[in-house]
Amino acid sequence: MAGQTRPTAPRAAEAEPDAPAREPSPRLSKAEQVYRELRDRILGGDMAPGTSIDKLALCEKLGVSRFPVQAAIHRLAYERLVTIAPQHGSFVARMSPAAIREYQMIRRALECEIAEMAAPRLTQDDREAMAENLRLQREAAQKGDVSAFYALDVAFHHLIARPLALAHAIDALEAARTHLERMRRLLLSPQGRTAQALAEHAALAQALASGDATLARQAMRAHLDSAATVFEQIFR
User: Fold this and answer.
1) What is the pLDDT of residues 130-163, one digit of tens each?
2) Which domain holds residue 50?
3) What is the pTM of this model?
């Protein structure tokens, strides 16, 4: 959209002025509270793409001044979740199919590599944690609880990376996942998709548990390609 601007990286919010001097306050800053509220609503689908962000309404609802709201919006704009159009306002960023395909490419490259590296490094605790996660996924799928299944899906992928000390790669992966999150919720909506995802997760867990790095990479690639196929069916 013409005239849109993308702000520079925002500075971390300053601590509350009344925070104790001897130790940090456990309370979140007002800017952080607003940021989390908006981010959760955007990623959860409560604020649809293109929705105008009413700053005054947010101030009244959250009981804050305009500054924390503005700071949160600029932070979300830096993350490309919000679009700021000068003289027009701020809006929830639209889900561009081209951008989603690009984020899928980034996620595929990183997660396949992570699966290959993780397979020979998984401990017994890691394998047991995956088995428990799959058990809970199965329960959620049987109940038709898409929200619970989605949370377990995210946790399952985190477990795969747990044995690896890849802070920078994980940061890059999480950035891609953030933009895919709204789309991934849609991907679990079609009838039968949770059962399919569960079967793919089970196959992936089995490949990882085998310790075979090549097999783990292939299983991850098959899983992510399946999600990409569903995306193309929804957005074509």
Assistant:
1) 999 999 999 999 998 988 998 899 999 999 999 9
2) 1-94
3) 0.74
